[in-house]
Amino acid sequence: MSTVDVREDATEGVAQAVAALRRGELVVLPTDTVYGLAADAFSPSAVERLLVAKCRGRDMPVPVLVGAWRGLDGLAQYVTPTMRTLIEAFWPGGLTLIVRAAPSLAWDLGQTRGTVAVRMPLHAVTLAVLAETGPLAVSSANRSGLPAAVTVEESARQLGSAIAVYLDGGSSGEPVASTIVDLTGDRPQVRRAGAVSNEELLELLPDLMLPPEQAQVPLQEPEQAPENPS
Questions:
Q1: Distance between CA 129 and CA 149 in Å, rounded?
Q2: For residue 224, is it within any domain?
Q3: Which of 171, 198, 184, 197 is CA-nearest to residue 82?
């Protein structure tokens, strides 16, 4: 287990993180919301290791982070004009999209029911790692049911030696969730309010279905998507 400060120079930290992820190990890294716990999305054993570290069941599948707009092309069964519109408006940033997963994907993120939650984060260190690894399975870097970590020290207290590399990017600030929009049904639907407001979304999606609660509030696990719908 090692901790690398990436606030001034991320070169060594990114290299260590990429090497660990390629070995199927776990990495904690800073994101634009809270600290994330990352694993190789295409390694079932690595994803299982992530779930065990978090004490999280397979009924709560792990979201995926990508490092570029085109990252969605290889993950979604198809990319619609609506998806393109949202990506161009809000990626990189605090918007997670639930889409139908490409049937050819050789991965096991949990009980996804054929869907995947995807986001492109707005954080230089995480994007540098993603540029080398490709898509990563990433959940918030805390044990399920405990507060999300906004510092690397908080994540280390909860996850300990289960993590091969901790990347220290300083405090992530207020843990505001990414907004989750489900695009698998007949109409787009907000599954979780968060960093992108309903007003911003409605400007692009007039038929958007809103959740009963309109308030945007910090959550315990901002990177944790709800169970992907069937």
A1: 20
A2: no
A3: 184
